[in-house]
Amino acid sequence: MTRVAAIDCGTNSVRLLIADLDGGDLSDVERRMEIVRLGAGVDRTGKLAPEALERTFTAMRGYAELVRSHGATKVRVVATSATRDASNRDEFAGGVHEIFGVRPEVVTGAEEAHLSFLGATAGVHGAEPPVLVVDIGGGSTEFVLGTADVDAAISVDIGCVRLTERHFSGGEPRVAAATADIDAALDQVAAEVPVSRARTLVGLAGSVTTVAGIALDLPAYDPARIHGSRLPAAKVHEVSRRLLAMTHDERAAIPVMHPGRVDVIGAGALILDRLVERFGFADVLVSEHDILDGIARGLGEEPPS
């Protein structure tokens, strides 16, 4: 058995999983998530902002203390969409190396898709293959079709932060324009991935799990209740429509809403709604296990850090 630490640094959040890896079994020791908005402004400027880097490094310093205190012997840091797109990603990489002693892996969209599939499919039950795993992130969304392994995958540049900055920041929300962006990205997906083969849609990440918590009318965020739940397409549409019609304060008052998701959840829900409608899925199987679990599982094949 090996104690491992996986860090996923996305556009909106930075997350930590410390777990015991024993063959194919992964047992959680600790999970943490901080909304740092690393990718704030990247879609417009092409750079990671100094204040966003500092927010991220502050969260990572706390994570490094947990990694040391729990005695993890292998550490892996993976960075995704915002860092891929940033011209100053070397500055980010230097900070990560100083904090954790390892260089971050700035993964491609295809690598991100593989990790998401690995984490998701090991963590849900009742998913009839082939499975389409959809990971709605802050800067990009990954679509991965597979059975035992990945058969086809694509990463497209639609995410809850990217679309919020483009269409939902300042003034009247431009829902029609956001929908057009999403639909154009789904055209790319349809051209690259044979979605019609999928028997099960598995949805990952904070936008999906938050929509699930709202649909379940939970009094507080409860991962155990959310994981493995099934959301009918009609419920996805209802929750998306409600969120887009709400004010900021109304969204903030939803019991399951993390404060860092209040301003971006409308865009995330719209992505989920459009893809469910476009590809004709009857429901979404929700998973709390995702790329973070895939990163940790991959450490079983990595040399110690």
TrEMBL record:
CDD domains: ASKHA_NBD_MtPPX2-like. It is an enzyme of class 3 (hydrolase). Its EC number is 3.6.1.11, 3.6.1.40. Pfam families: Ppx-GppA. The lineage of its organism: Bacteria, Bacillati, Actinomycetota, Actinomycetes, Streptosporangiales. One of its GO terms (molecular function) is guanosine-5'-triphosphate,3'-diphosphate diphosphatase activity. This is Exopolyphosphatase/guanosine-5'-triphosphate, 3'-diphosphate pyrophosphatase. The keyword Repeat does not apply. Keywords: Hydrolase. It comes from Sphaerisporangium rubeum. Residues 18-288 form the Ppx/GppA phosphatase N-terminal domain. InterPro entries: ATPase_NBD, GppA/Ppx_hydrolase, Ppx_GppA_N.
